[in-house]
Amino acid sequence: MEVGPFRLGMRTLKTALAVMLCIILFKVFDRGAPMIAALAAVFSLRQDLTTSLSFGKSRILGNTLGGGLAIVYFLVKDLFSHDFLVELFLLPFLVIVVIVVSDGMNNNSGIISAIATLLLISLSIPQGESVYFALSRVIDTFIGTFIGIGLNFFFKPKPIEEQREIEEDLVELEQKEKELEELKQKIQTKIEDQQKE
């Protein structure tokens, strides 16, 4: 459905449905706030199943890394009686670890989700909670990711929407190619300037 430049497509509806399913699931199983699962579902939901699976794999690796490091953070912070300095220095260090490890695993597309998972879990753990709370938040990210992927499995885009999404992807690709070309030009100019000196 389109009204001028505004449109309500299948992906929009699937995103809303993913959030709704997270809310219902967490209410039924009394898992607490569905925030992390809902965010994971939204991040994982892409235009089609193939893209969702590819992004989902990246997201799962990122969630595992970010969640594991959040548990490390929780244990170290607990060891030092929840000292503010642990938060101040350890959390940024763990962000560095996420980036370096993700890059080393060639999971660059999962860096942001890994950092988001690390920060969401680390900064939302109330003082006095156990390691099970942190583990539960890691599981929340997996629940959301599987809901997002599952919706794309059951609701495939119509050919017209699929064509529109392909066209949007091509426009985005063209923009990225233009940015890459501009970056190449800047680098070439710098190299030429350095050679003249």
Describe the structure in your own words.
The relative contact order is 0.15. The chain has a two-stranded antiparallel sheet with strand order 1-2. It has two domains: 2-156, no CATH class; 159-196. With 197 residues, the chain is mainly alpha-helical. 80% of the residues lie in helices and 2% in strands. The protein has helices at residues 10-28, 35-44, 49-79, 84-104, 111-124, 131-154, 159-196; strands at 2-3, 6-7.
Profile the largest sheet.
2 strands, antiparallel
Number of E-state strands: 2
Provide the low-confidence segments as ranges: none
Straight-line N-to-C gap: 60 Å
Task: Report strand order across the widest sheet.
Answer: 1-2
User: Quick check: average pLDDT?
Assistant: 84
* Count of discrete structural domains: 2
**Content of β-strand:** under 5%
**What is the N-to-C order of secondary-structure elements (H for helix, E for strand)?**
EEHHHHHHH
> What is the helix tally?
7
Structural class label: mainly alpha
Gyration radius, rounded: 21 Å
Keywords: Cell membrane, Coiled coil, Membrane, Transmembrane, Transmembrane helix
Transmembrane segments: 83-102, 108-126, 138-155
Coiled coil: 163-197
InterPro entries: ArAE_1 (IPR010343)
